[in-house]
Amino acid sequence: MASGQPGIVDERLVVGGIYIILFLRTKSNDQPDACNCHWGLYHHIDPMSGVKYHIKNMGVGWIADHGLTRRAMGSMFLIGLLRIGHCAPQDRGRLQTIVESFPLNQVPPGYGSLTCITWTLHIVNLFRRHQYVRCDDLSALEQEATNMGMAHWGPAYDNVQPRPISDSRVCKLA
After folding, report:
1. How many domains does the chain have?
2. Residue 99: what are its φ and ψ, rounded to 5°?
3. Global confidence as pTM
């Protein structure tokens, strides 16, 4: 449950946890047939903050929108977070280097286009190579995150609080 202590993001978040973070993307309350969610990543570095990694389509291309945040749970468009891995907070620079290693003018290998979903899954795959995420089946992880987005899309649209924070059943968590 969300903390009553000033400054604490949410006591349910694990310090060092790496999460897929999902946001509402449509402007209608008609739930889509498929998860029309915006995907990104979040690394919780201390009880009061974390780093959000995601990309935005600016019409002519994609831009990175990465940075420190104290409001991971504060977005009215947040659907929820799915914990998929771990990186010690003092090693967060390594995650940043991995994230920045992929140019935003390329399609991730194995995908037909660059989207927030294919970018997120590609970065998760890079995290796997460095042992920050232990998941043998990215397709199953994609389905798990998609299912979470679908299950919580309506409550997020209705601003039901608190938003869900779940542990992946597909990834091996420490």
Report:
1. 1
2. -60, -45
3. 0.93
